[in-house]
Structures are given as C-alpha cells and as structure tokens.
Amino acid sequence: MQASAPAYPNDGDRALADRVLASRDELRGNLLQLAAPGERTLLLDVLADTLIDRFAEALADGTWTTLVSWADATCEARSGVPSVRAIFTAAVPAFTQSLGRDGFDDLDARLSAVAAKPRLVRSDLGADTIDELDVLLADMVGRVEANDPMTAEHCRAVSAWCARIAHRMSLNRTEATFVARGGLIHDVGKSVTPLEILQAPRKLTDAEWHVMRAHVLTGHQMIRDHHRLRDFSGVVRHHHERFDGRGYPDELDRTRIPIGVRIVSVADAFNAMIGRRPYRTPMPPDRAVEELKRNAGAQFDPNVVEALVDVIAIKRDGIVVAGGERC
I need a surface site. Which of 206, 275, 282, 296 has the fewest CB within 10 A? Predict the structure, then answer.
C-alpha cells in the first residue's frame, strides 16, 4: 500500500522550510507565472517574496493561521488589484509544482476562500492632512536639527526618497505616507548623539561607533511609549538591520523586517552616500547606485534597490542631493 502524503504543517518542518527558502527563485517564477502570466510589477514581486517567507515560517511553526491571516489582510488592503487575489489562489499549485510534494490541501482551501471573499474597493485617500501627528513629527526633526542641522537635512531627504520608492513599488497612499513619515524621524536618536562624533572629520574609533550605533535604541526609547508615534518605533529601531540578518541592533532575519523598514534602509544608505559628510566628499549618484546593487540581497532588499534605481532613472535630470550623515 502506498503511503499517503503528509498533511502539512505537522509539528513544524524546518527542513522543508529551509528547502522553500533555498528554492525561492523557482518558487517565485512559478507563482507569478500561474497568478499573473505576462504581468510583472514590483508589487507582485514583493508580494510573492513575502508569501514565500510566510509559507516557510508556517512550515517551521506548524500552523497556517498567521499565513492565512496575512493573506486576508493583504487582499482587503489591495481589494482593487485582481492579481493580488490571484497570487493566493496560485500559491499551493506553484509550491506543489516547485517542491514536487503535495499535502497542502487545507492551505489551498483556506487561501482560495480568502481570495474569493467579496470585498469593497476602498479609496486610499485617507486622512493624511496635517494634524497633530505632523506637528509631533516636525518637533522630532526639530530636536535633531537643534543638535546637528546636517542630520536633520538628511532626514528630510530620506523621507522624500522613501515617498518616491513607495510610489514606485505601488504602495497605496496610506502606506507611502507612513513610510515617508518613518523616514523623516528614522534618525531621531541622533538628537542626543554627541556632536563631536556626528561631525568627526575622521574614521570613528570602536568606542565611538558603539555610541553612534546606539542612536537606534535611543530613538526607539524616545517614541515607543507615545501613542501617536509608537507605530514608527520599528522603523527607528530597525533601519540598520540587514537583509542577510547581520544588521543591528537585533540581527533580524529578513522575514521579520517589514517592507517599510527595508525602504527606509535603502533611502537612508543612498542619501548618506550622495550627501555631504564631514569626513569625505559626496559620492556621485551613479557610484552610489552601483554600491546599492552590489549589496542587494545582502544588506538591502533587491526589490527596493530596483525601485530606487527606477526612481533615479526617471529623475535623472534633476537629482536633489541633501545632507549626508554617519550610519
């Protein structure tokens, strides 16, 4: 008698989860081909990569609950984009094809139900007008400026790059506004970093780098308990995390770094390279782009780098370069 296929997830399957991540390129290709043949956008690329990460997490954790909840929320937020729903309908057939393994019938049924659920198409023109939140954000940037105007200039420029990248990646207006606001205060912790370190015209010592890197924790502490600012605490704390898990302060695996944080990280690095810095001259934008490409997949999310490259190509005749700072 032939043994029946196992019903996944079953008490966690770390080996299969690792295999999923190792087969990312094939999985992504099959998923996009089944879901949206002929259509390739950064939004779908990001969604496919995130789905693969969530699928691997579900296998390792032994439950589909978080994956299905995320799929439901994504379909709700993207109710006007049919290819988003198609991604979830195509998920199990794509995974079965790539892995050569079935047993995902329960997940297939649950994701298909999520994709088929009737949803209202909502406008993303939300309450983004100037309000108390914008006043608080301006106050935070003011604190940075009082300590170091160059860093405040850098924060404003990063916010602008974040908005452009988010738009290029087809984030809706609410999401793009959130990312831009997060970029605006990502370095708020530097409002208390000693100026002799921020403006040192030389390489920092190990002890000075320890103080410099503490700005992510200091900034996190400044906003985490404020009811209007706490949503940005992850951006402030984690904008120096790396795609390969070797960043600081928490060495997060890329599956735990939200897309908004990944956008801020790329915008931050790019503007730091092309901006004025106390210890070197600005890097030409083309060279900065090459550095981003060289580190895509290691330090940076490749999809975000690709989006920034597209933004720069569009704005090639008028790149606005603002202040640089130490990371």
Answer: 206
Q: Encoding tokens for residue 256? A: 């735990």
Structure token pair of residue 164: 């452009």
Cα three-residue angle 27-29-33, rounded to 5 degrees? 120
Q: Considering Cα of 14, then 15, then 17, then 18, what sign does the dihedral take?
A: positive
Give the CATH number, domain containing residue 137: 1.10.3210.10
Same domain (yes/no): 144, 109: no
Q: Specify whether 91 is located in the same domain as 195.
A: no
The whole-number pLDDT of residue 131 equals: 65
Residue 320 lies in a domain: no
User: What are the pLDDT digits (tens) for 53-68?
Assistant: 889 889 988 899 989 9
| Burial degree of 201 (CB within 10 A; 0-12, 13-18, 19+) | exposed
Asked if the structure places residue 82 within a domain, the reply is yes
Tokens found for residue 191:
């409002």
Using CA atoms, how far apart are residues 321 and 40, in angstroms rounded to an integer? 31
Do 253 and 215 belong together in one domain? yes
- If asked whether residues 58 and 141 sit together in one domain, one would say no
For the whole model, what pTM was predicted? 0.69
Position 123 in a domain: no
Round to whole Å and give the CA distance between 8 and 154: 48
The reply to whether 8 falls in a domain is no
Q: How far apart are CA 203 and CA 31, in angstroms?
A: 46
Do 102 and 145 touch, CB atoms closer than 8 A? Answer: no
Overall average pLDDT of the 36-62 stretch: 83
Query: Would residue 190 show up in a list of annotated catalytic residues for this protein?
Result: yes
pLDDT digits (tens, 9 = 90+) for 163-188: 999 999 888 888 889 999 999 999 99
Which of 87, 116, 145 lies at the terminal end of a domain, its last residue?
116
Same domain, yes or no: 156 and 112: no
> DSSP letters along 71-104, please?
HHHHHHHTTT-HHHHHHHHHHHHHHHHHHT----
Range of the domain at 201: 132-314
Extract the tokens encoding 47. 């969604």
Contact 235, 261 (CB under 8 A): yes
